[in-house]
Amino acid sequence: MLDTVIPTLTWAAAVGCGLMAGVFFAFSTFVMKGLERLPAAQGIAAMQAINVAAVSGLFLGVLMLTALVCAGLAVSSGWTWGTEATRWRLLGCAAYLIGGFVVTAAFNVPRNNLLAALQADSPGAALDWARYLSEWTAWNHVRTVACLAAAVLLVRSLR
């Protein structure tokens, strides 16, 4: 049974990691740059709206489900330990769980929460927005690379 369940879950995790890498890549390469070009109040309001949509949509489902599948695969490594495939799979799961999921929870979400409380037209909002853009985007680059690496490592484990 493990011969079919683990590869199926590995493919599901790889697809989830790839989807997350694509979303994060889009934000790193043009979404944040586009928001940065707006006046601060408009950029803040736009990102606040994006953040509300992200937690109520399919994005959060894929983020969480991929984390659950990766966690399950990591635990299952105990049953298949010693194979090259297990090592690649475990590395892929770790890349996603640490670089994608933990980074999101520890670095991007707290910044989103601070941004949610920010009044876009308040004094100092432009400085807060500039700091948010810099810090959030830097951590988003980490998520992008980690999720892409996770997808590659998971696919590699299937060879």
Automatic annotation (TrEMBL):
It comes from the Bacteria. The chain crosses the membrane at residues 12-31, 52-76, 88-109. InterPro entries: Anthrone_oxy. Pfam families: Anthrone_oxy. Keywords: Membrane, Transmembrane, Transmembrane helix. This is Integral membrane protein. It comes from Myxococcus stipitatus (strain DSM 14675 / JCM 12634 / Mx s8).
